[in-house]
Predict the 3D structure of the following.
Amino acid sequence: MGISWYYKICLFGSFLTKNQIDMNELNLIITRQEELKTLINQCLDEHSKLLSKADEKKKAEEEKKGSKDEQPINRKELAAYLRISTVTVTDWMKKGLPYRRMHGRVFFMKSEVMAAMNSFNHKKNSFIGR
């Protein structure tokens, strides 16, 4: 096994254009192929952990924002969203599906409906908490 020369470029540094190299981020190292593979795998593992943390943070922000900015939907839109008939929506309303009345019309909040769907009691054929 001969010794090979490899360049290690920091994967987590600033983004550069195709032909730019930041000399502060470039190190010349001498290593064996197996050591380089291990180093690359460690960098990829660290990068995937950073990505998963960023995804979790983004989802939490979207959920937080979504609960504030959620728009009410009507009976027909809810039926299409749940892939059921409007008659079923009306029946579920009688059994405790949460809804709101605004200006004489019925509206639903998706987050409330989905929470209620998780609490449906099949034995009593109604929604829990109502």
